[in-house]
UniProtKB/TrEMBL annotation, chains A, B:
This is Transcriptional repressor. GO terms for biological process: negative regulation of DNA-templated transcription; regulation of secondary metabolite biosynthetic process. The keyword Repressor applies. Belongs to the Fur family. The keyword DNA-binding applies. Keywords: DNA-binding, Metal-binding, Repressor, Transcription, Transcription regulation, Zinc. Zn(2+) binds at C109, C112, C149, C152. GO terms for molecular function: DNA-binding transcription factor activity; transcription cis-regulatory region binding; zinc ion binding.
DNA sequence: ATTCGTGCAAATCATTTGCATCGTG
DNA sequence: CACGATGCAAATGATTTGCACGAAT
């Protein structure tokens, strides 16, 4: 009821960030057309680490292609997600996109809404407890941290801050 | 910008589930009125472990108080959250409520949308990695598991299932 | 009696969808 | 050329808000 098909098209970027070429070839393989807007939207997500919302991406893409419509951004994001090129995350109700689809975890700043990625090998190699296995077949395991990010903490130090 | 004040009224239920009495006394302490709808809504969340959505709660409360309005449910949920009596979680974009505010983790079934609680002491006592500390001041640390729950897996075993 | 909470209806916000047109393969 | 993609506008779904009345302290 709330699910999404998750059959990632095989990206040949073993080391990290998939580039524009990967988009082209993967779209072709999937029978999807490579349009200007798709390329821009994709590069916009991949070339940032700030986990933008659909609206933020719409604004950014609009600077490059003033005529894009919001729908195209939404539609493209969904197609990129289905293709396994980007991932969607919802923290505290806010939907954000992440161009990094590799396994990693998130820190969410409850003050400014910023999202930061972080790795945690020790966690990744930890065995799940019985209590968790009892729930069902686990496909993914992620950690979500919440707190006040460095930026916010620092701006509070300097006087009243932006609280 | 996306935050919520989080000053939990002090609940005197050291061992677990806060009962109706706690609601009464805590509301009073906070200068809030104890209405019939609030009591019903609260007991509805506390006496279930299925992490209902606002809409589901609305339906359930409606069986007891046919005249409740959806808004009252929404408003009450927000007030209960602000008071620290229930917690709100968003998994894959769906907002759910949890009457258990103690520290625990969640398993989300990507097939049926069910949410299960589980404890993980080993994780709780693990020290955060430097990569995480670098992000900021961590206030909460939760694990989110996604996969296929037991129920779904079993119903698939028996023929076509409900996929 | 006061003041807060409720129900109602309308407003808002994010996201989705139908459709005619446009661009890519 | 043909079919998928785009832009537009309208639809939808979830949640919020303004307001007058009703209930709790």
């Amino acid at each position: 009821m709330i699910m999404k098909k998750q059959q990632r098209a095989d990206i040949s970027a073993p080391n990290g960030v998939p580039g524009r070429h990967d988009l082209r070839q993967a779209c072709r393989a999937a029978g999807l057309k490579v349009t200007h807007q798709r390329e821009i939207i994709f590069s916009e997500i991949v070339n940032t680490t700030d986990h933008p919302s659909a609206e933020m991406l719409f604004e950014r893409v609009r600077e490059k292609i003033p005529s894009v419509s919001r729908d195209t951004v939404y539609r493209t994001l969904s197609m990129l997600e289905d293709a396994g090129f980007v991932s969607r995350l919802t923290l505290r109700g806010a939907t954000r996109f992440d161009g990094d689809v590799s396994a990693h975890h998130h820190f969410f700043c409850t003050q400014c809404g910023a999202v930061y990625d972080f790795d945690w090998r020790e966690f990744d190699s930890l065995a799940l407890p019985e209590t968790a296995k009892a729930c069902g077949d686990v496909a993914s395991s992620r950690v979500v941290l919440e707190g006040i990010c460095r930026c916010c903490a620092e701006s509070e130090d300097n006087g009243a801050g932006n609280a």
